Amino acid sequence: MERSSMNMMITDLNDTRSFQVDAEFRNTGLERSEPLKKDLKWFSEQGHKIPEPSAPGTAYASYLEGLSEKDTQAFMCHFYNVYFAHSSGGRMMGTKKELEFYKWEGTLSQLLQDVRTKLNQVASSWSREEKNHCLEETEKAVTYSMDLRQVFT
After folding, report:
1. Staple partner for 73: which of 58, 79, 121, 134, CB 3.0–4.6 Å?
2. What angle separates helix 55-70 from helix 2-16, to the nearest 10 degrees?
3. Distances (CA, A) of 150 to 2, 32, 56, 101, 105
């Protein structure tokens, strides 16, 4: 649930942030907040206790919130990594479980391509320094993701 919560956080932050590029990345079809809420409700109805976010989850959420307010390039790196990682995992896991989180309206490959195209358009206006900054943030995105994965092992 922890990684899914990060996806919800990315969606929620993207819906409220004030960056110039935010309109490009709303209603992409990749948003997972509502499907995740439905799945959590279903698990709860089945008698499963929904755990509170762990320290790695709250740390990542706090970090993303800070980025969403001040650092477009770094935030977009996490946006890309979270959405594309979850959708890739979803293609495998979604075939084994009937969770709403792994269902998309439309063809997932087309939704991803549309977002990738928008990301490339936005990044085309960035300076070399801004592009490098975005790339440098990848290590942090992977590290946070690995920290969240360890919660489950």
Report:
1. 134
2. 20
3. 10, 22, 9, 21, 30
